[in-house]
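So, can you check this one?
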Amino acid sequence: MVRKIIHVDMDAFYASVEQRDDPALRGRPLAVGHGGGRGVVAAASYEARAFGVRSAMPSVTALRRCPELLFVRPRFDVYKAVSQQIRAIFLDYTALVEPLSLDEAYLDVTGNRRGLPSATATAEEIRARILAETALTASAGISYNKFLAKLASDQNKPNGQFVITPAQGVAFIAALEVGRFHGIGPRTAEKMNRLGIFTGTDLRERDLAFLQANFGKAGRWYHAIARGEDDREVTPDRPRKSSGSETTFARDLTAPAEVEEGVAAMVDDVWGWCERSGGSGRTVTVKIRYADFQQVTRSRTLGSPVDSRATLFETAVVLVRGLYPLRAGIRLIGVTLSKLEDPDDGPVREPELDLAG
């Protein structure tokens, strides 16, 4: 049976919510984030993207590209509430909804609840309902697997949709630059280019042995997607592997007391998730990024799951103290708890992620 998969991706989600809620922001270049010092753009409106402003870009770079850029602080509680509205719409059509973040999800509509004749019609109706109920637009990709549906959703953004049928899949991939493949980042694309792999056709011409020799375990995946093959199912409840929090500070931290205050703040975020979800984990990891952008991580796996904020903090502090004396000021601290398990040893559910598209 050929699956019918839809990838729904909200258009400039955070920025669009802000423009919806404040008419004065509509039609203007807008960034969600913090506009000074070491701030980073969390999301950019399409008006801002026209100037080359992108998410994860330093605010100073964004302002250099677009001096008229307006910054608004993120309101994650609002974004999460809107995301829940959208999720409820999805569930009217299928129980097989796999959220990737607040603003995107895969849907398997092979057997949709509305009995609509095609995935194309289903995507059109879902997008129309999102617009009617939230005043926001969404784009959709429709195909026979997740990899192609994800690629398709980018084709007619914003406020559009695109279909890749089984008969079109291999040809669509053949003409695509490997840097546009979902799951192939800039560094991997550069490596492929050095090996003479620039397009899907080039990738398909390399045999499995060559790809595994050069890309390890990922070689099998690249071999498959070059042929339009992706057997991954849409999985509503994906096991969560870790819970983490990190932040970049407005100024470099140089004193141990400051560093440990930063660790404490990250621990509060992570332990807050543990309390809300009832989950915990056994491996604590601390990430440090120095002022010169060199990064180090330290981890410790405990014999049993972390059972209190105090234990999490004490473990994290011991790890960071192993880096004293500091070789340079610290610009970023992160704390992650992994090897997660809930009190009943069942899977911990994947939470909504604060990512903008």
Q: What stands out?
A: Confidence is low (pLDDT under 50) at residues 342-357. Residues 256-277 form the longest helix (22 residues). The chain has three domains: 1-165, 169-225, 242-341.
